[in-house]
UniProtKB/TrEMBL annotation:
One of its GO terms (molecular function) is ATP binding. Coiled coil: none annotated. This is ABC-2 type transport system ATP-binding protein. GO terms for cellular component: plasma membrane.
Amino acid sequence: MTAVVETEGLTKFYGTRRGLEDLTLEIRPGEVFGYLGPNGAGKTTTIRLLLDVIRPTSGRATVLGADTRDPRVRARIGYLPGELALEGRERARNYLQFLADVRGGVSRGRIDELAERLDADLSVRMGELSKGNKQKVGLIQAFMHEPELLILDEPTSGLDPLVQQEFLAMVREARTAGHTILMSSHVLAEVEHVADRVGIVRAGRLVAVEDIAALRERAVRHVELHFDAPVPKESFEGLPGVRDVVVQGASLRCTIDGRPDALIKAAARYTVVHMVSAEPDLEEIFLTYYSEEEGRHAHAGA
């Protein structure tokens, strides 16, 4: 299967400042790819290179099997920029209808359906839109022509939690329809429930690409067990992947790195009456990547 996005050695310097260096990446057809990193890491530079808004210093990139400079590719992409400039006295509905007419094949009903899902008021003039409503209009224009590739830069910025959930449902539906989504974010929780894979970028360099399923395998969990009688702490110390063990009478709290198998087998020797396991904390894994990369940079500079 031909990659929807493919880069090889993609590099962009702004004078002497590194925006992106040596990015080699493939995004597969029909996947949601989370592109993660702190602000200023190189995410937006990557997106601008893919959209041919800026040109690379070196390296190459293809999108939907074509060179990024091919103008025919643009119509097959839906794009939400990180900073959406919507100004003027024109009403949001008229702006979206103009875009629909330019792209062709977008019905007024499609715009209304998306506006209803996102609770967007399209009667407001563009210059008077709040941050959240600008974001909603941006999402409508990105999704409305059902593009083969969606490129979304910080897509939930300014959205309330209910609208965020509706947006994530739209992403899942686009993936089910066979479309590909590149979602850039500095917040892991924003993408972890919809992404198939994530790439981590820091200081202009890609430091890791991981399957979400593999991350969950290694994820940190906080677990609490309650027994029908007090248990000895020694039974749970030194278990593989189990740390921070605290035993108070008949209750035990601990942290698990990766699979809980060793803890479950140890607990099975006693009578468990209640168990609480928090959602895997993938954020801790990403913080580990960032700190390891910082350590490598510090060591290299020493």
